[in-house]
Amino acid sequence: MSNGLIPATILTGFLGSGKTTLLKRVLSESHGQRIAVIENEFGEENIDNDILVADTEEQIIQMSNGCVCCTIREDLRATLATLAEKRRKGELHFDRVVIETTGLADPGPVAQTFFMDDEVAESFLLDSILTLVDAKHGDGQLDTRQEARRQVGFADQIFLSKADLVDAATLDALSHRIKHMNPRAPQHRVDFGVVPIKDVFDLRGFNLNAKLEIDPAFLDADDHGHHHHGHDHGHEHGPDCGHEHAPGESCDHPHHHRHDDDVKSFVFRSDKPFNPARLEDFLGSIVQIYGPKMLRYKGVLNMKGTERKVIFQGVHQLMGSDLGPKWAPGEKRESRMVFIGIDLPRDVFQAGLSQCLA
Fold this sequence. Notes:
This protein has 358 residues and is of the alpha/beta class. It has two domains: 6-206, P-loop containing nucleotide triphosphate hydrolases (Rossmann fold, 3-Layer(aba) Sandwich), CATH 3.40.50.300; 263-356, 2-Layer Sandwich (Hypothetical Protein Yjia, Chain: A,domain 2). 29% of the residues lie in helices and 24% in strands. It has eleven helices and 13 strands. An eight-stranded mixed beta sheet has the order 3-4-2-5-1-6-7-8, with helices on both faces. Strand 11 (308-315) and strand 12 (318-326) form a beta hairpin. The protein starts with 5 loop residues before the first strand and ends with a helix. Residues 263-357 form the CobW C-terminal domain. It comes from Sphaerotilus sulfidivorans.
């Protein structure tokens, strides 16, 4: 990468969803990239020793194919710092990092490490969070485990694994359910961990200043094929159907009412510009109160006083914004924000954001 930052990918997913299979596949594919893998030690299954060359007492292991594997014995920050230092000194060679979280982990703190710590931020760029969902057991896991729902809410990209083990109707229902929880993340169906490398790396899910074309999905999260003035309360089909339906089509999938998942998304939009100071105050206070329940939030904002788009996003309590490209001549200046979280009070957010308009 031109800026010299090492791209990092967080791989998450519930127990048995196939993270290790996917990783092995990525590590053994001949793509010419050297990958450093960081594993949370108490993973359900460590990477097979057959692709490791060294004795596993060592914290950082060079693999036979040139990849590097680390188990975390201290915190992630320290491990990343060590890797970056060894790479600078030429002791280790790798092109990117993949962090495999345990099946029960909340990816939030892992993602936050890349924003909070200056040393990490100077060396690494968080590329994206990938979540694997087991097509066969996913429904049950989403029903019973909030960790599984959170992992879906955090994702930039979702892989439905073991898709070959269920029928099309089951797969479609699961896919639709996940789309309600996180309309921003594209879904890929995969069998036996066979995923082309282009679907795994350089997705730029997290790049603030990357061009928005690469993540068009989050901007369309609430488009129903027709336009509203002001912001969209989603009256057409219940307040929480945050994804595309044809105009007038209702979201009446029978399974949808069975699962009123606590992880949901909603979109705020307005063609009036924001007052920057008011918006900053409101977002600051909202994050203080609801931060732990705010999984991901992201937006393109029309701010009073600048000719450029403002791109903003956050994870839990951590929020960042950046100046994007200029609004093109004739382009509709519309602010669009998407919030994905656990039982967030949509009306409080909508009313508060409306108050911040200039």
